């Protein structure tokens, strides 16, 4: 079982494709002819300057970072200050699955929209805080679906891998007929230390 998630844009990664489907608040800086159908509430054939739409990341990203950007994009709601404060207060109490299936991966894409680096810091803080809890979950004999439902996809994969490894270790410890003994090098080292201490007195 390998960790197959990508943390950089990867054309062949299914996870990366799903992450870039997430919608980003975008504001058009110029008039765009013939694309009025992108706005379901508009009756015109063109998108007018100042129109605000939620566009998928794979479309919004290239349109906003060109030499002459057509749109400006902003942080998704789940990375804004109100949610960052909640995560800083107690990240373990937050249901990340409700905030987004790919909370960490999407955060790595949109962190450049935050010049102060707050998004990057809150991603790291959230992962560190929740990883301790995740390790406690993996020690459980029963794979609890309620706990899994509160995790984003990366955490869910880590949980499943950790639980699988724990079950394999338990099985080996219970079924192994070999007795665990200290290596001879360790035993000799302990004897040598004991002799050295006796020589001092």
Automatic annotation (TrEMBL):
Q: Which UniProt keywords apply?
A: DNA replication, Nucleus
Q: Which GO terms describe its biological process?
A: mitotic DNA replication initiation
Which stretches make up the DNA replication complex GINS protein PSF3 N-terminal domain? 12-63
Segments forming a coiled coil: none
> What residue stretch is flagged as signal peptide?
none
UniProt-annotated location(s) = Nucleus
Look up keyword Nucleus and say if it applies. yes
Q: Which part of the chain is the GINS subunit domain?
A: 79-173
Q: Summarize the protein's role.
A: The GINS complex plays an essential role in the initiation of DNA replication.
Tell me the subunit arrangement. Answer: Component of the GINS complex.
Q: What is this protein called?
A: DNA replication complex GINS protein PSF3
């Amino acid at each position: 079982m390998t960790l197959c998630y990508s943390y950089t844009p990867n054309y062949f990664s299914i996870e990366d494709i799903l992450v870039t489907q997430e919608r980003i608040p975008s504001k058009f800086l110029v008039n765009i002819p013939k694309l009025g159908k992108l706005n379901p509430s508009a009756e015109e054939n063109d998108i007018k300057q100042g129109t605000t739409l939620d566009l998928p990341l794979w479309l919004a990203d290239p349109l906003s970072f060109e030499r002459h950007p057509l749109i400006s994009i902003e942080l998704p709601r789940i990375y804004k200050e109100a949610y960052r404060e909640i995560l800083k207060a107690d990240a373990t109490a937050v249901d990340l699955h409700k905030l987004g299936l790919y909370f960490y991966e999407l955060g790595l894409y949109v962190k450049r929209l935050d010049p102060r680096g707050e998004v990057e810091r809150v991603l790291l803080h959230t992962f560190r805080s929740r990883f301790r809890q995740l390790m406690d979950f993996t020690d459980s004999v029963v794979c609890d679906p309620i706990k899994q439902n509160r995790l984003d996809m990366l955490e869910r994969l880590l949980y499943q891998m950790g639980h699988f490894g724990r079950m394999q270790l338990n099985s080996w410890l219970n079924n192994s007929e070999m007795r665990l003994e200290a290596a001879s090098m360790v035993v000799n080292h302990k004897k040598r230390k004991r002799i050295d201490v006796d020589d001092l007195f």
